[in-house]
Amino acid sequence: MHTAEKSPDVDVVVVGAGMSGLFAIKALRDRGLTAVVLEKAPKAGGTWYWNRYPGARCDIPSLEYSFGFDPELEQEWVWTEHFPPQPEIEAYLDHLAERYDLARDIRYSTGVTAMTFDEPSGTWLVETDTDDHIRARFCVMATGGLSAPYTPSWPGLDSFAGTVVQTSLWPEEGVDLEGKRIGIVGTGSSGVQAIPELAKLGSHLTVFQRTPTFTWPSRNRALTDEEQAAVKARYPQLREEQRNSFTATAGTTGAVILAFPTGERRILDSTPEEREAALAEHGFDACRIWSDTASNLEANEMAVELYREMIRRTVRDPETAEKLSPRGFPLGCKRPVLDNGYFETFNRDDVTLVALRDEPIVEFTPDGVRTSDRFIALDVLVLATGFDAMTGALTRIDLQGRDGRRLRDDWADGARAYLGIGIEGYPNLFHCVGPGSAGVLATYPPHIELQVGWIVDTVRDLVDRGVVAFEADRAAQDAWCDEVARLSAGTMYVAPTCVSWYNGGNIDGKARTFPLYLGGVPTYMERLRQVTAADYEGFRIT
Ligand code: NAP
Fold this sequence. Notes:
542 residues; alpha/beta; FAD/NAD(P)-binding domain; binds NADP nicotinamide-adenine-dinucleotide phosphate
């Protein structure tokens, strides 16, 4: 095709209508750019559309887990609980789409299958499973960090005659769980939230646990009118605090995201009496009040022992308590989990724990599952087995950049990106909260406003300047990846015993890298501002 025939249909294609995509479309429109959003789901919401399993809720306070770009919106919207349940966040995002008339630029039930960059024209051809072919000057990948579900395979799973459902693909019409024999695999954030609710709904719940989890009581509560009014009265300051905070949070919320120790006292110097007093005062949080657990593995293990002691005091059956106790990996290497009565659920007569490391799954049959030790009859199997995080949503698209390069090949040994935004070899493509950004270590809405705001401002500028290609430079990308690695060196995140979705260890065969920027949001944003001021230092402009 002649270059002239490859003129773009729109300035920007945005992939995904979750939080990032909704913000992007509004911001692009506000800056006078044309855009089309392609969304796989039949409606907006992203994570908060797909993850509608019983018990799903956010572990960041609702008054913080919301956008601040419109003072009227944040004043008018009413949250009912401290930690917002999934339906409320979904309703909030529906409201956003409606309030700003965003749906007219969104094509729902449209999954992107392939994207190909055409170098002479500087355009992307985006193809979808509904046979759309859209040509755009720029692409903004608002595909989410936790949006590509990971489904393990076991022998015979296809033969299981009951219902198999993934927490991250929970059907809108719901799942009939009433009185059913339910099995759930996975005890990360999703599993830990679902387990207490599934126990209440089914006749029996079997929890298949591979690795025990560190989880803390969420102490969720209804929001009082006074509490809500007090925050709304100081919303501008709260948003400012978020922008200036390492994790884009206000107050002490950051501890939820990072599990960083909060105290000044070293556990290595503590006496048994002091540790007992800490347990009495702080319960499960007793392991998080010391200063030396993030940097010293011996201190970390002492703190973990406090945690195990709390499990023993909570779970009546000593054998079950022992199986639930984390061992062999440090506290703080994974995303902290918050729960609503998780350990207490194992005191119910109708809940059984199967520790898969002692008793692996051998096969599924039409009626249930056979482990090495027994047969367990099931009607419903729930998979809370996580995600091909941060990279999966992009590598599952056949994404071809310059010179026929394919992203899934380029990232086979780990994601590489400049500033977590641009990728060398893939011009005119921007990634929201991608690998190499503070991304999932920050509260999404405020972080999105800052980072996606930068992307949109940049696109506006590039369009004005008639730029054909805007691409991360190889040397700048390498230097940024080195900085990301340097910041994580010596932290629990990269401890050899830490297996998590942060470092790719949760997926068999996935490269083990830790692609999150640990410099904090303000430093990250300052860096973006410097890059802009230096005429997009580290990007090549054609
Ligand atoms: P996850 O943390 O990766 O947990 C997946 C679970 O599935 C783990 O227990 C894992 O065991 C298990 N698993 C995976 N493959 C398995 C296999 N083949 N056999 C047995 N068990 C297997 O995923 P997630 O729970 O969906 O959470 C992911 C992230 O999403 C969270 O860390 C959080 O950032 C976010 N999230 C947040 C909320 C919230 O706001 N409260 C709720 C849900 C999710 P291993 O540990 O042994 O790998």
